[in-house]
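re: ur question from earlier - yeah i can do the single chain one, its not a big deal. heres the input i used so u can compare w yours
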Amino acid sequence: MLNQTTIMAIQTLVYIGRQRRPGPIPPGEIAEQLGASPAYLAKIHTQLAKANILRSYRGTRGGVMLEQHPSSITLLQVVEACQGVILGDYCQKHDKIEEVCAFHAAMHELQAGLVSTLSKWTLADLLKKPFPAESLRGQVNCRMECACEGEKKGVHAEA
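and the output i got, formated as tokens:
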């Protein structure tokens, strides 16, 4: 459903959103924390900047910062920045859903539900609970774990 680029974009945004220090976050730091190629992250940062989710700064003190408040960044924005607009992959579009085949109606409902859910969840929601409860840590594979590695080890994001 979500491709690796989108997952990495969300991890990047969670990492940036958890930082308490002012100023841009260096891309090399993000790449190291997430275990990603700097070139791959640069591509992702460009996509997020084009969607007005991140702002890039050049120079020796350059890096990236959130362009918007975390409560304004929806998962739908991130998915569409990385994967394009979510389109239904079903029969030819038709405005009268009651007249189409059952498969078309089911896929239309799936698309509407996906868009609705991704529109509802924001980066702020993810930042409220970036990883599982202590009792589950190490027992479940959490995709956001790498974005919160320091806190997981008892070291909190810089204040």
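The radius of gyration is 18 Å. not sure if urs matches, ping me
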